[in-house]
């Protein structure tokens, strides 16, 4: 009788342990060791924001030669902007291919969620739930990928969400929780509100679960310098002292926060050499002067960067746009941190 009781007890214990195992998340097993945030900051170097998995035309024209071309020109990262649902098997398979090709080319991929629905309506419970669900699905899908793959939580906190900092921080907390269930040591990138302004880095509430594998992205000039004298991004010719001061103060704000007790290693995630979205009002010579200044300022502070976008400099193919070759040469020769991991 006692033996029967002991057997039933053992079975009950085993059943409880097994049930607990089934409820537990499957922990990632990447093929490499976790990458410290400061190490990744040094390794990111310079790269492109890319549309290879963003718009139908770019998806249709994509080939593995594109990341290979970026690498051949001396670039070392690719910020892969996405917003399509991973429940679409065709899109998910395409994204797998882009990430695999990016890694094969020697580029560091940053998987960057746009989050347009949440940006437009931060009060929408379904938009928040969809954003968090997307990151949970992405984390599960890529949990065994190399640690070189970075999860970039939001391309640019703009629109209504950009000024709704409590909701932005709430979204980051919930996304981090979803990611950490399967990816305890993958680097996560956080961008501040007000269109990723460095001035709002102090308002970021980095979830404790994100640390120490966390970095922060900021940017300005995502749509290029501005020829309007009333704009804070106003730029003419080689840039006046006042025009240059705006950017140096942005970088100084990021460095100050980076060195604070709550700061993280930072990177500059989006900029253009001209206002291409509005027809481009800057000559190639002016773009070269602007690019040289931005590159030198970032290099001086050892801040890596990604530029908008691969397609501006290479079109839909792999051959550089001939008229922008002088600008591309400036970008290639920037004294940015290019250390390999």
Any chance you could write out the topology, listing elements then pairs?
Blueprint: H1 2-23, H2 37-44, E1 46-50, H3 56-60, H4 65-72, E2 77-82, H5 89-104, E3 108-113, H6 116-120, H7 125-141, E4 150-152, H8 159-163, H9 165-180, E5 188-190, H10 193-196, E6 214-218, H11 241-258, E7 266-268, H12 284-300, E8 305-308, H13 310-314, H14 325-332
Parallel strand pairs: 1-2, 1-8, 2-3, 3-4, 4-5, 5-6, 6-7
Helix pairs in contact: 7-9, 11-12, 12-14
From the helix content, strand content and strand pairing, which structural class follows? alpha/beta
Number of helices: 14
Q: How much helicity do the residues have?
A: 40-55%
Ends apart, CA distance between termini:
63 Å
